[in-house]
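User: I'm curious whether this sequence folds into something compact or stays loose and floppy. Could you predict its structure so I can see for myself?
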Amino acid sequence: MPWFRHKFTCHLVHATIVPVFFVRLKSGSKDKVWQRWVRGGLLALSAVLACFLVYVLVTNSTTVPTPTAAAPGSMDSADATISQFTFTQTKGDTVQWQVQAQEARLFERDRRAMLQVVVVTLFGQQGKELTVTGDEGTLNTETKNFVLANRSEPLVIRTESGYVIYTNHLAWTDQTREIRTQDPVRIVGHGLEVTGRGLLGHLDREEFEVLEDVHVDLAPAS
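Assistant: Here's the prediction. I'll summarize afterward.
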């Protein structure tokens, strides 16, 4: 039977090119009235051309939409989608754990599988040790680590020794064969109800430790 302990332990910038006209008049060749007319006409023409160029640039400019990256794990970016997905981790002839999912989206470059509607079975030295069900999860296909979470209700973790563990998030580290969460935890079984924050489970030792703020009560009779 597993035992529980707790810690008492672009912008695009358009440059407008405005043509400028220079007229060189010989001193005394025209009278002052004629000069004023010429200068006024040239200024008016320059202003009209400048307004026309601005109008053309504004009306013909094309707004380039900013590319929107596909959301991580989106269906379009997945390399493959598998229904009724099963992944089994073995050591020699011994099954260590198994992941089953209603759907898995595989991302080869990231070594990652995004899972929907997941059941995970972990095996200890005496055989099947615990089962976890969750709405979604992520499996690292290289390290064999995975995380599970529910969208609303807590995850439900059932041990073969008769305990039920409730928490919002759970991570498995394959190298050390440990389950862990930093979220609030509630454990019910054998007439006890244990609540606290954080959980560390050593599967090979069949030992589960509530890490902080631990409270132990008698479970209400069903």
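Summary: Confidence is low (pLDDT under 50) at residues 6-27, 61-75. The two ends are 22 Å apart (CA to CA).
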